[in-house]
Amino acid sequence: METINASDFRARCLAILDHVSATGERVVIPKRGRPVAELGPVRSVAVRYPQAGLERSVTVVGDIVEPALAAEEWEAATP
Q1: Would you call 14 helix, strand, or coil by DSSP?
Q2: 39, 13, 11: which is closest to 25 by C-alpha?
Q3: Neighbour count for residue 51 (Cβ, 10 Å)
Q4: First-to-last CA distance in the chain?
Q5: Separation CA 35–CA 37 (nearest Å)
Q6: CA 35, CA 27: separation in Å to the nearest integer?
Q7: CATH for 2-42?
C-alpha cells in the first residue's frame, strides 16, 4: 500500500486516481504524519436491486389477500 502526503495528493490528485484505477492498489493519505484517508478502487456495484435475489424463492399457498383468521376468531373482535 502506497502512502502519499496530503499536499502531494492535492497536487497530483488526477494522476493518483488514474494510478489507483489502473492498478487497483490502495493509497493512504496522511496529513501532518497522521493517516486521515485511504483511497482505493471502487468495488463492483450490483446493477440489480438487492431484493432481486429473492426472485423465485417464495411459493404462494392459498389466498394472499384475505385475513389468515376469520373475524370471529380474533380476540380483539369480541366485545
Answers
A1: helix
A2: 39
A3: 7
A4: 71
A5: 6
A6: 10
A7: 3.40.1620.10
In the three-class reduction of DSSP (H, G, I as helix; E, B as strand; rest coil), residue 43 is classed as coil
N residues, the chain = 79
Q: In three state form, how does the secondary structure of the chain look?
A: CEECCHHHHHHCHHHHHHHHHHHCCCEEEEECCEEEEEECCCCCCCCCCHHHHHCCCCCCCCCCCCCCCCHHHCCCCCC
Q: What is the pLDDT of residues 30-74, one digit of tens each?
A: 999 999 999 999 877 666 787 877 888 888 888 888 888 887 887
How far apart are alpha carbons 40 and 26 in whole angstroms? Answer: 4
User: Rounded to whole angstroms, how far apart are CA atoms 3 and 27?
Assistant: 6
